[in-house]
Amino acid sequence: SGYLNGLIFRQILNLINNGSIKHRDLEAKLGNNYLRAVHLRRYYLCSNANVVLSNLPYNNYDYSIVTCCENVIGYVPIPVGFAGPLNVNGENYMIPLATTEGAFDVSFFVILNGIRVISKVYDDGMTRAPVLSFKTIMEALELKEWLEHPKHFQIGFFSYCRLKNLTVTLYSTMLYLRFNATTGDAMGMNMVSKGVNEVLHMLAKRFSNMEVLSVSGNYCVDKKASAINWINGRGKSVIAEAFIPHTVVRSVLKTTVKSLCALADAKLLIGSSMSGTVGGWNAHAANIVAAMFLATGQDAAQVVSSSMCLTSMTETAGGDLHMTCTMRCLEVGTVGGGTILPPQRTCLKMLNCEGSCTECPGNNSKRLAEIICAAVLAGELSLMAALCTDDLVKNHLKYNRYVLYLTLVKFVYSLINLNTDKLGENTLECSAIL
Length: 434
What we know:
It comes from Syphacia muris. By secondary structure, the chain is α+β, with helices and mostly antiparallel strands.
């Protein structure tokens, strides 16, 4: 370890190029000189792949804590805005949103102010489903019957990982075992996978004809929108609720309760059903989930399943708006993965759910899930109101593209020696460039 430190830059690159060392091993062979390893790897990539990385920053970063990425060559800064305050379960939160979509954060400020949201996790359990193969159906059925016997359910995992239930599904000579376990404040997929591996080793000793095809048989289901996750849940199952007075709908949202409810039926329920969506009975839940996942260090690939949401809007007897968002598969954690990175930890601190809850493990991750679901509700209301009033495109032009639009128009006209004060019918032609 560290034996490369006595070599100059060019000598190390020669060793990488001739295959004597692998660039993925640079950190260890440089004695954990992380910044030098990143610098060398960048130079190797630029010279061998003919790419330019000058606009990809790498300085001023603590690579010693990066355990969630390999072959590091830098980092991608993403703008982080905030919206709020949002009152969730009686507490006000400023919502961090890492996004590159214009008019996204701005739309929240008007919507969030004054809204009180009740948000609750009503089920919690991370799943992993290995697939096993047997030579005959009788061998598969023997294990199925054994696993489903109550006396064989006494299987212990780890300190923060507790098995809740096990579903055994048979197809031909294959068994899919869907383990469901609580995992404290961790998102828990790796934790459950380790526990499942221990169980499989134990089962292999008892059922010698069993072949483990994979620790994941896609019956979990991870990083894919699926009916089983929507029906049975995965991660946190959360529901959020808010009552918005009709006076607020009229004065702030500039629409009516009846218009919102009619659009919710036509767009969220009927339109989504006609398109055959799975878990997509919402306006844009993925926008909020993705922005908060990036800000708080969650697994971005799980947005595809975590954003499954059913948004409901109904009119109360008093004419007010009753709104709920049901999310059955919110896969979040406040420890592990990207949550260890300082910027992401800072965003978790904003939400008062950084790290593990020592008094009651699991409470911080539940709080994060409840806040995300509440923010989704606010985002749904914001977009639906904008659609009712035809403000969606106007806001995007105002907050996202308007300045660029004017700059480009002036630039184009200067090239063809036209005065910008004579903009007329040709303006539309220039806008097509955008």
